[in-house]
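Write out the 3D structure for:
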Amino acid sequence: MLLLLLLFPVCWAVEVKRPRGVSLTNHHFYDESKPFTCLDGLATIPFDQVNDDYCDCKDGSDEPGTAACPNGSFHCTNTGYKSLYISSRWVNDGVCDCCDGTDEYNSGTICENICKEKGRKERETLQQIAEVTREGFRLKKILIEEWKKAREEKQQKLAELQAGKKSLEDQVEMLRVVKEEAEKPEKEAKDQHQKLWEEQQAASKAQREQELAATAFQELDDDMDGAISLAELQTHSELDTDGDGMLSEEEAQTLLGGDMQMDAATFHDRVWAAIRDKYQSEVLPTDPLASSVPDLMEPREEQPPLPSLPTEEEEEEDLEEEEEEEGDSQESPPPLVPPQPASPNEDKMPPYDEQTQAFIDAAQEARNKFEEAERSLRDMEESIRNLEQEISFDFGTNGEFAYLYSQCYELTTNEYIYRLCPFKLVSQKPKFGGSPTNLGTWGSWAGPEHDKFSIMKYEQGTGCWQGPNRSTTVRLLCGKETVVTSTMEPSRCEYLMELMTPAACPEPPPEPPANGDHDEL
């Protein structure tokens, strides 16, 4: 209405004689030549009792220009600005309520008539609003045309994708068959390679166990008669079975399966597996580091004093002892060295042979082609879904809000950064670090029936502590730019946001021809 008043000039109002506080539209009820009938029709009084500072009518209509009736109304003419009704109680109360000062005619307060100045400012504001509306609507028409063109392009692209989907599906199925056929000889060759390697591993392990058992047998066979006796087995107390630290004759006989002695083959087949984990080899460690490090549990022996020069008798005795030791060393065999443990590489499967590797390379190439085609099909299906959703989305009467679909807008306050992604979600994130909180995902248009596209509703956001899920109402305002102008939380977990956009600008009325300057509204 203000915009219409601004755009359509009116003529100067003709001064009509009427009682103080009566509007021009009601002046015909106040005829000096007739008694006055209260506007509620309940009483009639002589006209000279109108504005006599005494309330005769229950509706206060007989005192429009005084403060006698608390429920009466005083009309401010406010020439040059907007006329206004105020409560009769404010008449002559010392406060200037009418911009023309007519409400303080008898209070002693001098009110400056500021109606023309207020009218001028009001006109400037209305002109600015009208300019924003005109420019915004111009941009809105551009947005509508852009969406029409974009929608046609998207529909064409959708048709192309849907047509190409069948061809790509056939290609994927063909490559799947090729892949499966290439994987059959690959699997057979790899399985055969695996089988041979496992057989080699088993044979190598069995050989190592045979060597370990043979070494242990030689160590236990002290008299080297080719058999292990109970006494020889008892020399290894670590094989004790009852925990008393000694291997008794009965325990030894039990280990030998009831026999009194046992040859090497039987030892390997029946005994070695039972004692393998307990058996301690008699061969000294060959690691120089291990032999050079003193046993921390044994006390260190004191260094003996330097020996004195031996006498002739002592030299003869030493010579005899050395000869005896040499004789003994010639009779006893050298220490047995246990078989070396398996090399770390023995646990690693050897490379495939040339034929197997060729099968693997061919199958891998087929897999790569199939996976690439399958990935292309998935991407195409996702593009089709997105296009179908965007094309069918309700973007306003003429698609004017479509440009918001792939955009996000932010508003930073003292504490938070609010982010609005139209048709998707609303979130808030602490300004100085922290994870975002979902204030609602797109629900629907929620404006009144006559202006459906003026409000957006976002629902089912992150739940509040012992409260409902967060939700946001977005009010759309006319503007030349697209920007979030404000956000607030009027109720717990319910947010209100305002988004300025050209798409919300209504069509302005046509500009009237200029017929001269007028100061009044």
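The chain is about 40% helix and 15% strand.
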